[in-house]
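For reproducibility, we list the full input for the T3D complex.
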Amino acid sequence: MDNTVLYRVSEGVATITLNRPDVLNAFTDAMLDGLSDALKQAERDAQVRCVVITGAGRGFSAGQDLSDVKRREAETGHAVSFAEHLRHKYNPIVMRIRTLEKPVIGAVNGVAAGAGASLALACDLRIASDKASFVLAFARVGLVPDSGMNYFLTHLVGYARAFELAATGGRLGADEALRLGVVNRVVPVAGFADAAQGWAGELAQSATRAIGLTKRAMNRGLIASVEEVLEYEAFLQEIAGRTADHQEGVSAFLEKRAPQFTGK
Ligand code: T3D
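The corresponding predicted structure, in tokenized form, follows.
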């Protein structure tokens, strides 16, 4: 992993930091590979029970590094395939975030633009600093929203608002994002990192196996029929009901004490 993506684990929380602050953490291929590796590491490490993705400096991520596209074209002597680039670099990251059976928090410290905004929306939860914003920059550079934006934003805010933002390349400020349900929490920039880590720490101490299964169930719920969802819930509850955390949760309730979950 090169230093354009930083990875740190502390008290059950893996923090992945996008680290090209001079260009608002715009993505190069090396950085996308680093992010993909970091997510794989977080997935495999049983000690990790919650993942935070954030940005270094004043931005979360400005999306695709536009000068990198030009550089690649100059190097290879031909136009890059946008479709192949998305299929091989961005899309697997989005799918990994969605299928990782641990809560993933997008800690949006500053501006999130283009595919950077898509990445933030792919996370299960979002905490934003009061200086954060979401910019649907695709239209500004003559592109279509990608990396899952057309799925996530329409589900979060509905078609008309999503379309307006996409068509105008508009900027959504933190307070408006909170009002529309695009982010779960907004906190002052001064205490932002601590607030994000505090929330992640709480989640990491909870019944994380059941939370992972909940994530599976809800993702299925977004696309399946009621009948399919009912059957899938029954299937997943069979797994959750046999975990140590379920036993502990029930015992703690009956013994009138706080539960000590282990994620097992
Ligand atoms: O290839 C494929 O697979 C296609 C996939 C495409 C997916 C996409 O993400 S398309 C969208 C790409 N992103 C953008 O178009 C956003 C471009 N950036 C902006 O519009 C603005 O920078 C922001 C609205 C995000 C923030 O504005 P502001 O005024 O706060 O900052 P700034 O001054 O514009 O940017 C600060 C620096 O970062 C600046 O460099 P400098 O002048 O200090 O040397 C700027 O050039 C650089 N920067 C910002 N975004 C990018 C970037 N450099 C390269 N690529 C960027 N995307």
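The chain has a mean pLDDT of 96. The first strand starts at residue 5 and ends at 10. Both points were considered when choosing residues for closer inspection.
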